[in-house]
Predict the structure.
Amino acid sequence: MSPFSALYYIRNNKPRCILLMVMLMLSAVIYVGGLYVTSPLSTYDLFLESGDKFIYMVDRSIISNSESHFDEFLQAIQKDEDLKYLPHSSSGGSFSWYTVMGFSVGSNDLAFGSVDDFKIYCDKLNIKVDFEKLKPHSLILTRMLADNLELKLGDKVDENTKHEALEIYEGQSYTVDFITDKKGYGAYMINDSQSDYAIKLYSDTLSSEALRSKAVALSQKYNVVIGGTPKESLESDFAAFNFIYGFIVILVSVILAITINTAFAGMYQKRNYELSVYRAIGISKKKILRKIINELLLIDAIALFMGGVITILFIYLFNNIVLLPDGKFLEYFHPLAVIGVLICNLLSLFPLVLFRVRQIKKADICEY
């Protein structure tokens, strides 16, 4: 193996290189931190998926002093071959859930006027349910929400139920008749009544964008309000977490940069004799620099790979042993976590490369 290959130095200086790899692997903490701060928003995935396929639309006249055109609005939908709707049913309660960060958020709860309406909803979202077990006042929960709230099949909830994360409205009561394995947090109530002032608009033929475009046009023409919480609003609500995460990334990066540069400085000081030999036999500073940079990049690549493997294994075990039994979870991937690791890695390595480049460029053979 050529002495100028990046692997040559690593193979002959394993203890030092392993120590440096371990330091660089600490950036994996940033990745886990990124998953941690984005976990509350990621719990809304099922809610956002529902919002893509069903658009909640309300007669404006019930929330403002204006003329109602809701009957004309429904007639227009019935004439459009691409549009369908489910009548709205008022929710009999609200459900929240506890996040990995320790606070509760919510709620992704929907009510349906009949089992048949709920079946249409489930078919669109690929939610597997045994509909024969359902009846008016049935409560259907996703597995994660049921575990999170410690509810089981057959449990009854009503206005007297004492629970910090759920509230059943006066005069309402429900029985947990089915728990679905659909990923996410969702509570679905079957009622025996429907309202005449709101609907859930959907389509079997249109894309989400086309459906929303039609909904907007209809809302403007017939004085109807589009309800629901768009993704942009949720992201705005959790923007503070991203700011805190960014501060942590910078702080950890600075600490790692100082620690790693100190360790590397000591390691390369011991290589002065080796580098002086290279210069004495006529090897250019440029080639020496290329060798050192290649070594750093290889060490960093190995550290990132090993850190990634260990991190994924840790998340898997942490999810299955600690979080999932309590109805919580960490995603394995989020773009913000990747960006955080890349920033941390670059901020740690850049000063190291810069200092070594400046040192070797200024140095003469006699200084080795």
